[in-house]
Amino acid sequence: MALWTLHGNGRTVEPGAVVGPAERLNWPATIAMGVQHVVAMFGATFLVPTITGFPVSTTLLFSGLGTLLFLLITKNRLPSYLGSSFAFIAPVTAATASAGMGSALAGIVAVGVLLAIVGFVVQFVGVQWVDRFMPPVVAGAIVALIGFNLAPVAWDSFSAAPLTATVTLAVVILFAVLFKGFLGRISIFLGVIVGYVFAAIIGELDFSAVGEAAWIGLPTFHVPDFASAGTWSAIGMFLPVVLVLVAENVGHVRGVATMTDASVNQHTGRALIADGAATTLAGLGGGSGTTTYGENIGVMAATRVYSTAVYWVAGLAAILLAFSPKIGAVFNSIPAGVLGGVTTALYGLIGIIGIKIWVDNRVDFSRPVNQYTAAVALVIGIAGFTMKIEGFEFGGIVLGTVAALVIYHVGNLIARARKTGADDGGPIPAVGQLGGDPQD
User: Fold this and answer.
1) Domain spans of the chain?
2) What is the pLDDT of residue 180?
3) Distances (CA, A) of 360 to 146, 152, 428, 440
4) Residues whose CB is less than 8 angstroms from the CB of residue 133 and which lie 6 or more positions away in sequence, other chains included
5) Residue 348: in which H helix or E strand, if any?
6) Which of 101, 317, 325, 333 is the most core-located residue (most Cβ within 10 A)?
7) Cα–Cα nearest to 311, from 298, 321, 296
8) How many CB atoms lie within 10 A of CB 400?
9) pTM of the entire structure?
């Protein structure tokens, strides 16, 4: 494993320079930045187990362990924090309700194993086949339908305490547009804090469990259940998540490569293997599935520090936090109204990320194949279509994903054979600036 060399004087980063993965600042600065990464990941990572009913402390433990495992598998050359993936919320919620937590954990393990297999293929074959199998219109549709499929879950929590939910949602939006840089990126976390305080003021907060919880103790562990009859039906709901994790990891590697060194792209396969291994480990012990975190990419971009030493500090800090039941009790005390306000924004943002994939890749929606790929997939996901086949029940995410893939690939095959012009003709030509800050 590579050792870190000291960057410059160890205290500052020169204008235009970055601290590469194999470099580090002095240890006080490195530790401080590691703690900053914990703060950045915390808001999103704790929300997933809180929403799905998983133990928060256990999720934090496997988040930290997964990060260290990721660094080891990628040979300490790819900076990344592995936090809870929101793509798991819908299948975990459905599987837990229908077959129990053990079946949900089995689904997480299945995703991890399959993701690792994809990683091995990418490592030896290359990542180009992923782009062909899941082009932007398909990838965007899958990500969008996962977010929009969760809309009823957000409403259930929102309607439990509409006033608190509205205040929380308003604060999330306000902080996102009010603050610059890091504070703006953690607006959801700040919204939870304000909503929590508001709920306490109006008497919606039950803090009794927090007072009874110990400061130090072991997390609660659970094991996957592969024996129950409903498990294998539940696993089917998880398979589309693999496509999301592939897209997230590939995007993460490309982002780091753009900021540091193009050779980082060589580690794409290892990144997928590492996230697959971390997700499998989490599922085996009762934690949430993991993914590379955009929040932490934002911190790296802002600080220009891409040192993997920082992530070793962050992973170890998360593990230490996991051994405090009192911290877990605090998160479990978050009222339904606060979660309702946050998830209304959060689930919608997941959907918008899918739409952003279309925009960034200039998907041509004048082509019928692209139109129907997105349209049918979204309606299936939003409406929550279900289908039972020989005892197996498939939900909106699975059916929407299958629809997107079949419509796109079969539709293109037919359109190109018939030369109708209905096929995906590639990105539309850019006219003027696409997004970003206004330019004079």
Assistant:
1) 20-352
2) 72
3) 19, 28, 11, 22
4) 405
5) helix 336-360
6) 325
7) 296
8) 28
9) 0.73
